[in-house]
From TrEMBL:
Signal sequence interval, chain numbering: 1-22
Name of the protein: DUF3152 domain-containing protein
Molecular-function annotations in GO: metallopeptidase activity
Domain of life according to the entry: Bacteria
UniProt cross-references to Gene3D superfamilies, sorted A to Z: 2.60.40.2700, Collagenase (Catalytic Domain)
Organism (species): Aeromicrobium choanae
Keyword Electron transport: no
Start and end residues of each stretch annotated as Disordered: 273-296
Listed InterPro entries: DUF3152, MetalloPept_cat_dom_sf
Keyword NADP in annotation: no
Keyword terms of this UniProt record: Signal
Boundaries of every DUF3152 domain copy: 129-275
Record's compositionally biased regions (Basic and acidic residues): 287-296
Amino acid sequence: MLSRLLPLVLAAGLLSAAPATAAGPTPVAPAVAPTSQPAPQQIVVREGPKVKGTHRFGKTLTRSVGRYSVGGLQVRTQWLRDGKPIKGATRWKYELGVRDVGHTVRVRVTVSKPGYRTLTHRSPWRKVKHVRDVRRTVKYSIATNGSMTTSVKTFKRQVAEILDDPRGWRAAGIKFKRVKSGGSMTIVLAQASRVPTYSSVCSSTWSCRVGRHVIINQERWKHASPAWNAAKGTTLRGYRHMVVNHETGHWLGWHHKSCGGKGQKAPVMMQQSKGRNGCTFNPWPKPSERNVPRYR
C-alpha cells in the first residue's frame, strides 16, 4: 500500500514545489539614493539701495540699485508709503504726490538670480514735506449767512482740505488754522441773495471777497457755473477747489489775472467761473502765483 502511495506523494510534492523552483525568490528593487541639490548661495550686500532727490511735494525721487557680491541680478523695485506698497510705483523714479505729503516714503529693492537666495533691501525712510515750510499761519473761522440748503459740515471739511492741500496756497508757505470764531479771515457760505449785502460790487450770481470776508455763493458751491460745467473734464469738486482758492487769493492780495496763452493752464486768479479764453480750467495756484504779493 505504501509503495503505491509514495509515487503519488512525490508527484504532489513536485507539483507544489514547481512554481517556487521555476520562479525563484521574489526580486527586491534596489534602493535608489536621492539626488542631492546644492544649497542656494548667499548674495552679499556691498552697498544698499539709496534714494536721491528732495522729499517735497511735486519733486521726483530716483533710486540706485546698490552693489552686491554677484552680477547679473534681476531687480524688482517697489516704492513704499508708510511701509506699504504704492500701487503702480515700480519704476526707478517716483514723483511725490498729494497723498505722500506728511507721510514717509522709501524704496524696496529685490534682487534675485538662479542658484542664489532672493534678497530684499529697503532704503532709509524720510517724511515728505509741503513745497515750502510754514512761513505764516493764518487763523480763519467759518460762518453762514441766510438759509442753508447744503451741508455746512461738508463745507467746513472741504474748505479745510482745500486750504491744506499741497497744491493750494499751502505751497506758498501759508498754513491755515480754523478757529471757532474770529481770526484774520472769515469764510462765509452765503445764500445767493445775501451776497450783495456785503458790498455793491458783489453779485448774487457769483462769489465775492470783501475785507476780511471770503464769501462763497451757495448756488455756485452746489452747482458750479455754466461755463465750468460746459468744459470737458471738469467736476463740481474741482469748482469748489477753484472758487475757494480764487477768493482766498483775493484776501491774500491778488487781483484778477488773464489767460497767458491758448492751451495753458488758467491762473487760479482768472475768473474761470465766467470762461477761460483759450486756457484750460485750473483749480490751483500756479507756481508763479505762489509768491504771494502781500499778507493781511
